[in-house]
């Protein structure tokens, strides 16, 4: 059995290697059809993982991943499941497919139709096309939910290669949408270059729809628990949805939960298969168990938390109080402070694992609970992973203490800073501080506390002539 499984994987790797070495698609497709009646998505994943481990640049797999999908198209085995909760409205898979349906309609029924009119010389449709491409930009939220939530759980179960490849393609699509929109807005735009840009973009989007629904979804349905899907569904509202109204909240049915108990051996077998495709799976699951313990501790502390009843704060020993060198705070107070801070905080521990983020009302970048326990480099697009790792390595080595960047995010100017945290024992981790500084950049002159509007009060003539103080009154 194992020998046959290994033989199949080796042969799939050989076929994919043929493509990467310059072989033709037709030859690869013919070899596959000759030797295989069907293939599981996990076999494709294992083959791509083996190519990366053999030294192939992941960006090369990204470049040819559409061809990989085309080789196997129509031959991916169906997986029979014990329940079909994923077909219920609100389930993340149902939401993903519904968005893809609307997206496909936007591509073919709206934008393709507008391109036909432009081809006939009707450039009065330019504004409608720009509006349609703006709508297409909502795809960013669809991809962000996948990258932030689904990829996080895929990594937890050891499925690491597909997220890396798909995220790279997602970023390419984002860039292609921006490029096409800028070209259409140019008064000198010509139809032929516009058409070529559109066809390339449309192909990438449609191939990603295929990869999501025919590769990623079957793989995740086989491995994720109903609890995983429930958390993904809940966290999805923090990121938002594309093309559709907010779906109804989803929770697994009682019947599905009962059926899941019967299916658990099969799920564990699928997890084991994922474990065999990547050496990092054991560490990932261990991190997940540590996360559960930490979450339980925090929950207990929150229930026990209470305001301080005395001011002798240095002697506080209540589990609901946190004693600092400069004072004491209850957990509710700490949470309140984090919520109103004008910056977003994310803490990454000494092992480069995300352990905490602040939960303000208007975060610059979305964060959900699924990020806790995730390697921080995997929270960034593949093209910037090496830069993040270089900063963290510098912090750990003690060769640098901070790093800062500022970027344009739509109309916002965003300031991002990383700080190394250390104590007498050494490196503790990294604190990421993100802030929207758009309004700060507009500040001019000065605005003092006493300049703020105040209700009128009776004052003596002497008091009225005193120099105003900028210090906060003692009382």
UniProtKB/TrEMBL annotation:
Lineage top rank: taxon: Bacteria
Domain DUF438: 13-77
One matching Pfam family: Hemerythrin
Domain Hemerythrin-like per the UniProt entry, residue ranges: 91-219
Spans annotated as Disordered: 292-316, 446-475
InterPro entries attached to this UniProt entry: DUF438, Hemerythrin-like, PAS-like_dom_sf
An annotated GO cellular component: plasma membrane
Record's protein name: PAC domain-containing protein
Organism encoding this protein: Enterococcus asini ATCC 700915
